[in-house]
Amino acid sequence: MDEGNNLAPTFWQMVGSTMLSFLGVSKESRRKRDFQHGNPKVFIATGFIMAFLFIMIVVGIVQLVLPK
User: Fold this and answer.
1) Helix axes 40-65, 11-23, angle to 10 degrees
2) Closest C-alpha among 37, 59, 34 to residue 47
3) Helix (H) or strand (E) holding 1
4) What one-character-per-residue DSSP string does 7-50 give?
5) What span, in angstroms and rounded, lies between the C-alpha atoms of 27 and 63?
6) What are phi and psi of 3, to 5 degrees?
7) What residues have CB less than 8 Å from 2, skipping those under 6 apart?
8) Which of 4, 49, 59 shows the shortest CA–CA distance to 22?
9) Is the pTM higher than 0.70?
């Protein structure tokens, strides 16, 4: 096991992990680190922000495509 996996992830590592998992790609070692040492509040907040941005992008694209 890597020594870096025993350390708590930084804020930006948690945000990056959330973004990668939102896309469906992640490493098993990163997942284990996040579940053992990560702060759930950061993952939840980042997940809500990512979902909101995704919805806003879809709404924006639909507004561009539909005739006015």
Assistant:
1) 50
2) 34
3) none
4) SPPPHHHHHHHHHHHHHT---HHHHHHHHHH--HHHHHHHHHHH
5) 36
6) -65, -35
7) 29
8) 49
9) yes
Amino acid at 37: H
User: In 3D, which of 32, 37, 29, 31 has the Cα closest to residue 18?
Assistant: 31
Residue with tokens 């939102």: 22
Residue 19 burial (CB count, 10 A)? 15
18-31 pLDDT per residue, tens: 889 888 888 888 88
67 DSSP 8-state letter: -
pLDDT in tens, 34-49: 889 988 999 899 999 9
